[in-house]
Amino acid sequence: MSLAESRPRPDGPARGRPRSEAVERAILEGVMKLLEDGVPLAELSIERVARTAGVGKATIYRRWSGKEELFVDVVRAAEPPDPELPGTSLRDDLVVLLESLRQRGLASRSSAILHNVYAQMKHSPRIWSEYHASVVAPRRALAMEVLRRARENGELRPDVDLDLANDMFVGPMLVRSIMRPDADLPEDLAEQIVDTVLEGLRPVSSTAS
Question: Which of these ranges, 30-39, 135-144, 161-170, has the smallest mean pLDDT?
Answer without folding.
Answer: 30-39
